[in-house]
Amino acid sequence: MLQCLILELEMVFSWLNLLAKFGFSDVTGIDYSPSAIQLSGSIIEKEGLSNIKLKVEDFLNPSTKLSGFHICIDKGTFDAISLNPDNAIEKRKQYVESLSRVLKVKGFFLITSCNWTKEELLDEFSEGFELFEELPTPKFSFGGRSGNSVAALVFQKT
Ligand SMILES: C[S@@+](CC[C@H](N)C(=O)[O-])C[C@H]1O[C@@H](n2cnc3c(N)ncnc32)[C@H](O)[C@@H]1O
């Protein structure tokens, strides 16, 4: 059974078709906010998507049950954790440790970030992960230079 952990519940519904196509039947969505889980739960019920499990979990201190995933998807949670005014450097380290704990070896991590560049993300996840693919994102130009407003990368656990 292919297992997927989703750290970004708002997008869970758009990921579902794609995941189903690739044979993922076990999808788990987490958030440390009970109200985010409650809202997602009501949408899941309305849409009849019974194959998604939802859990209130702090990703910086995940329960032992959160393990063995083939894929972990994040859009915005690493960014939110990075912006925490209370010891963000330590929290980012904890995030990488948690990620390593929940993913299988050779498992994939898809991250979309509006806060970090590709180079910065490569540095953040340099221990235990390698870049598998960079996904295309919108480009912009300013003052004769061009760049991306969003970085979207796929890492693989080594
Ligand atoms: C910026 S929002 C992103 C929401 C959505 N993925 C999106 O793209 O609009 C960040 C989410 O991460 C959750 N979050 C922040 N820190 C977390 C943690 N330590 N564990 C689990 N969820 C966390 C917040 O509750 C929030 O729902």
From TrEMBL:
InterPro entries: Methyltranfer_dom, SAM-dependent_MTases_sf. It holds the Pfam family Methyltransf_31. Keywords: Methyltransferase, Signal, Transferase. Residues 19-133 form the Methyltransferase domain. Gene3D superfamilies: Vaccinia Virus protein VP39 (3.40.50.150). GO terms for molecular function: protein-lysine N-methyltransferase activity. GO terms for cellular component: cytoplasm. Residues 1-25 form the signal peptide. The keyword Oxidoreductase does not apply. This is EEF1A lysine methyltransferase 2 isoform X2.
